[in-house]
Amino acid sequence: MRIIAGTFRGRRLKTIKGSEVRPTADRVKESVFRIFGERIIDVDFLDLCAGTGNIGLEALSRGAKSATFIERSYHAIRVIESNLLQCGLDRRHPQVQLLHLDARKGLIHLSKRKTKFDLIYFDPPYDAEIYGPCLEQIARGRLLSSTGMLVVEHRHVQGPQPLIPVGEGVLKLNRQKQYGDTVLSFYEWEEVA
């Protein structure tokens, strides 16, 4: 696993062995950042269920103003810290916020602080039943800026029932992209009259 582009391009990142974390595939990551394009410059970025920190570090490398990493696994937090060091950063760097909390508690914590993000990448374990509650918390806590984008990575599901809600409060599903068994769902803010 490596940083694809930007300031930290080519830096090798540590991974986590076993099934504790499923890193985002390079081709999916590359596609996401191609879609973000120049929009990544000078944004506040949230890497929710950060795993190794791969996505948040790519955002910083490409010009994000800040990256907040939320991860519940102590082992993964240690790997994120190591990967930050690979990029010349640490958890005390002003561009970095590292929260050792489960996703929902992390979102509640950020909501209480009235934090807003321009881009949010949410990649929980595919079988986790936290998609709905976390989308609801992002909407209720108004964590996504009015011009922001939320990207949810999940498994492709056959049949009429979507894996994640089509809309939660003010978050509206705008499009989906499929890469093999992986689907990216893109949400944006929609004001409700």
Total strand segments: 8
Distance between the amino and carboxyl termini: 45 Å
Strand order of the largest sheet: 3-2-1-4-5-8-7-6
Q: What would CATH call the architecture?
A: 3-Layer(aba) Sandwich
Please name the fourth-level CATH homologous superfamily.
Vaccinia Virus protein VP39
Give the number of helices: 5
Mean pLDDT: 89
Radius of gyration: 15 Å
Judging from the principal axes of the Cα atoms, what is the shape?
Answer: globular
Q: What's the helix-strand series?
A: HEHEHEHEHEEEE
> What structural class results from the helix and strand content?
alpha/beta
List the helices and strands and how they pair.
Elements: H1 26-36, E1 44-48, H2 54-61, E2 66-71, H3 74-86, E3 96-100, H4 103-112, E4 117-122, H5 131-140, E5 144-155, E6 167-168, E7 171-179, E8 182-189
Parallel strand pairs: 1-2, 1-4, 2-3, 4-5
Antiparallel strand pairs: 5-8, 6-7, 7-8
Helix pairs in contact: 4-5
Structure description:
The chain is of the alpha/beta class and 193 residues long. The protein has one domain: Vaccinia Virus protein VP39 (Rossmann fold, 3-Layer(aba) Sandwich). Helix content is 27%, strand content 27%. It contains 5 helices and 8 strands; from the N terminus they run H-E-H-E-H-E-H-E-H-E-E-E-E. The protein has an 8-stranded mixed sheet. Helix 4 packs parallel to helix 5. The model has no long low-confidence stretch (mean pLDDT 89).
